[in-house]
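Q: For a teaching handout, I want to show students what a protein-ligand complex looks like in C-alpha cell form. Below are the inputs, and the small molecule is flavin mononucleotide. Please produce the holo structure.
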Amino acid sequence: MDLSEAMRTTGATRNFTEEPVSDEVLHSILDDARFAPSGGNRQGWRVAVIQDPNLRTQLGELCSPAWGEYMAQVAAGEIPFSMVHPTQVDLKSAAENPPNNPLLDDLATAPVVLVVAVDLEVLAVTDRDLDRPSVVAGGSVYPFCQNLMLAARAHGLGGVMTTFLARAETQIGPLLKLPTNHALAALIVLGVPQHQVTRLKRNPVEQFSSIDRFDGEEFVL
Ligand SMILES: Cc1cc2nc3c(=O)[nH]c(=O)nc-3n(C[C@H](O)[C@H](O)[C@H](O)COP(=O)(O)O)c2cc1C
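A: Here is the structure, written as C-alpha cells, with flavin mononucleotide included.
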C-alpha cells in the first residue's frame, strides 16, 4: 500500500469481525514496528501479547473506570484528563459507574490484545526538568505504537491504541508482572475491521502551521 494512503486511512477501529489474526501476521507486524525511532535508539518498548481470556477480562474491568471518568469529563464540557485545567467532575463516582464500552467489555474475544510498556531506565527525557509534565518521554514509545498500527493496516487489519490502562497502572502492573521502572504506555486491540475507514477527520495544514513563529502567518501554498 502507498505510504501516504496508509497514513490517511489508519483510523481508530473498535469493531472487528470474528476472523482471527495468525501469530505469523502478528509477528510480522511487530517485526515492522520495531523499526520505530526512539531517543538514543534505546528501543525501550516491551510488548505483552495478551492471550489468556481471564487476563483480558480483568484488563477490561480495570480499564473501565477510566472510561467512566473520561465520559463524565466530556459530558461536563471538559478536555478529559487535562494537564492544564483541573476537573470539576466527581471522578470517584464517575469511575464507579462507567457506561458500557464494547471494546473493553468484549476484550476477551478480541482478535489481538497487546499491552505496550516502556522501560523508564533507558529513556532520554530532555524536558524532564521543566515545570510541566513531560511530553518527550512518550516520544520514545508512541512512534512504535503508530508503526504497529500502520503495519497492521498493511495487512488489511485495523485497530485502536488506547491509554485507559495508565489510570490503573498500580493494579495492571502487578497483574502483568510489569518490571520495576517500567510504565504502561498503551493497550492496543487489532483485528479485521467490520468497516474500513477511508476518510479521517483532521484539521488542515494551515490550521496548525505558521511561518517563523507560532503566531506567524499561516503556512499555505
Ligand atoms: C495517545 C492516544 C491515546 C488514545 N487513547 C484512547 C483511549 O483510551 N480509548 C479509545 O477508545 N481511544 C483512544 N485513542 C484513539 C483516539 O480516540 C483516536 O485516535 C481519535 O479519536 C481519532 O480517531 P480516528 O482516527 O478514527 O479519526 C487514543 C489515541 C491516541 C493517539
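A: Two things your students might notice: Helices lie at 3-9, 23-33, 53-75, 91-96, 102-105, 142-154, 169-175, 205-208. Residues 33 and 145 are 7 Å apart (CA to CA).
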